[in-house]
Amino acid sequence: MTRAEIIDELVRRHESRARATIYADAFLEYQEASANIQMNGTIVQHPRTSNPIENPYLVLRDRAGRKLEEMKRVDADFLW
């Protein structure tokens, strides 16, 4: 689903547009970060030094996940 479709569906489910927008952004960030981790793994190579580092998307995924958890009362089961 696109960001606009997620927001529209959440508004249809009685969320405020502002809350729906925050949820949609966090959900899409979580989804993108999870896809990157699935594709590249939790340990990646540093682009300049080639040393192994923790995938930076882990931080983004965890931050977005906390935001989604804080908004667990949002009726968004249709996304999962």
Give structural notes.
By secondary structure, the protein is mostly helical. It has one domain (3-73). 60% of the residues lie in helices and 8% in strands. The protein contains 3 helices and 2 strands; from the N terminus they run ααββα. Strand 1 (43-45) and strand 2 (52-54) form a beta hairpin. The relative contact order is 0.19. The model has no long low-confidence stretch (mean pLDDT 97).
Compact summary:
With 80 residues, the protein is mainly alpha-helical. It is built from three helices and two strands, in the order ααββα. 19% of the residues are buried.
Give me the count of strands.
Answer: 2
- Strand percentage lies at 5-15%
Instruction: Output the structural class.
Output: mainly alpha
Trace the largest sheet across and list its strands.
Answer: 1-2
The profile of the biggest β sheet is: 2 strands, antiparallel
Mean pLDDT figure: 97
Question: Considering DSSP H and I runs of 4 or more, what fraction of the residues is helical?
Answer: 55-70%
Task: Assign an overall shape.
Answer: elongated
Give the distance, in angstroms, between the N- and C-terminal Cα atoms: 11 Å
